[in-house]
Write a structure and sequence with these properties.
This protein has 279 residues and is an all-alpha fold. β1 and β2 form a beta hairpin.
Length: 279
């Protein structure tokens, strides 16, 4: 790092940081302070010190913690409401069969509902929850309100994207104040899964180019007219998270907390709003 021009005032301290944080993880934060990493010039710009990239690294940790509280709220609410609405419409025990889902094929030719049903069966089989063990022991079918608690958010999101009970899905999304078409609505939830997984795995958010972003509806833009974001930025995902969490809470306390955090850290916030391409 010194040979690339980084000013290191405390070599032992820098070694400890690398020991604890992993060079590879930190290197994503170096890029904004290097000459031209997209073209292979990884030398640091003159005057750059470790403090420059350690600050966004620290602030990312704080933002991830706040995001995870919001995605947990969305995840638990979606699980509960989806299970209730499908069961109320007579689908309490049919969720594990292919006939409950629309046929669809991905780019690799995989039949999505077949892989989904296999995934549901896998998580059900792996579960050690007391209630699931009870159903397994008695041979009774597991109702959807118990089953959804055994599955990761990604599996529940895939159920939303393919389920044939469109009435239940519309009521679910309307309860979240999302009035887009069913495909866009399910894509919003899928983007929350992706955001949650990034944060759960301690991934970099600052200057990240998102692979999966939610459609931003007119209602979201009207709710937060001054919240700027660039396409494929973390901020694009945040505006959807704000909207969902505030709708569930019936107030703006969640969005206000994160927006306040970003307002207090304006330089860092630019990296949340602006994805960079270093490949």
């Amino acid at each position: 790092m010194e040979s690339r021009g980084l000013a290191v005032s405390d070599r032992d301290g820098m070694k400890r940081i690398l020991f604890d944080a992993n060079y590879y993880r930190l290197s994503g934060y170096f890029r904004a302070f290097q000459n031209d990493p997209a073209r292979g010039d990884n030398d640091f710009r003159p005057g750059v010190s470790a403090a420059d990239f350690l600050e966004p690294y620290r602030l990312d940790r704080e933002l991830r913690s706040m995001i995870l509280r919001g995605t947990a709220l969305v995840e638990l609410t979606v699980r509960s409401r989806f299970a209730y609405l499908v069961a109320r419409n007579g689908g309490a025990y049919s969720y594990a069969g292919v006939d409950s889902y629309e046929p669809a094929v991905n780019r690799r030719g995989v039949e999505l509902r077949l892989s989904l049903v296999a995934n549901i069966a896998k998580w059900m089989g792996m579960s050690s929850e007391v209630c699931i063990r009870h159903y397994r022991r008695t041979g009774e079918p597991v109702p959807i309100w118990a089953a959804v608690e055994t599955m990761p958010f990604d599996t529940v999101s895939r159920m939303l994207g393919l389920h044939r009970d469109t009435a239940a899905l519309r009521e679910l999304f309307h309860s979240l104040d999302v009035h887009a078409n069913l495909r866009a609505s399910s894509e919003i939830i899928h983007a929350m899964v992706y955001l949650r997984n990034l944060c759960s795995h301690h991934s970099r958010l600052w200057h990240r180019e998102m692979v999966i972003v939610p459609p931003v509806t007119r209602a979201m833009r009207r709710r937060y007219p001054d919240f700027g974001y660039e396409q494929r930025s973390v901020a694009q995902a945040l505006i959807a998270l704000f909207y969902l969490a505030d709708a569930i809470n019936a107030d703006d306390s969640y969005s206000s907390e994160i927006r306040g955090f970003l307002s207090r850290n304006r330089d860092y916030a630019q990296g949340v709003r602006h994805p960079l391409h270093w490949e």
